[in-house]
Amino acid sequence: MNNRISSLVPEVTGWRHWLHQNPELLFDLPKTQEFILNTLAKIGITDVYTGLGKTGVVAIIEGQQSGPMIGLRSDMDALPLFELSDIPHKSNENGKMHACGHDGHTAMLLGAAQYLQETRNFAGRVALVFQPAEEGGVGANAMLKDGLFEKFDISEIYGMHNMPGLPVGEFALCHGPSHAAVDTFEVQIEGNGAHAARPHQGDDPIAAANAIYNAFQTIITRDTDPIRNGLISVTAIQSGEAFNVVPQSALIRGTVRTLHADTQHIIEKRMGEICAGVDLSHKVNSTLDYQRKCPIN
Description:
By secondary structure, the protein is an alpha+beta fold.
């Protein structure tokens, strides 16, 4: 390892510990953004921009020769989890934790910023992109909508994610896409409640939810090309609470992951058709809310 980079490890580790102690969620990152801005200023980087994706930050470093602008990207947000460890740099925020390593990603990009700012031994410019709301908030799309690629002539951009278990100093790569498009769905089912002793007087939304759940699983095995497959995960089914009442309604919630646009389209289409069919067979009314969160392209 380059001696200068090696000498930065204690400082980068300290940055990571501070970030770990002060986790923030989605776009609400005032302390994280301030820490990044202050650290960039201490490093001596003055070409800094905010206002992209609400709390996103972009910093530019000029190389010693002319050339293209290359982007280096890190995410900044934490997860809504309670940290149960007893490490010295444990989270100070109840219900918030850097459990996905974005504290490390941010610290690493700041470390790269310090090394590049000191040496400038490259042609062109480097754009350091600090992205908010990676955890479900679609922060990358927010930065794009705010003109990231219009304001900065970034020819290519690189990001990475920590992978526990991978030997230190190694990178894992693959051909083609490595992460899927992320969609979410909710199915609201409205039936007719009844006494549990007289279920024939109602229209059971739980039975309908069960039918929808089982049918959703056949989309992957029977409707999509096995070479261009996707994934449907139902993560919540919610309905009544009483022992003796057939409830009025039920809710199904989950996520869809796909690597190909045609598979994504088939899954959304078939989910709607299944819900419509179950409505007829179970005498209920269902509404499918399908949201395409992170695009494939």
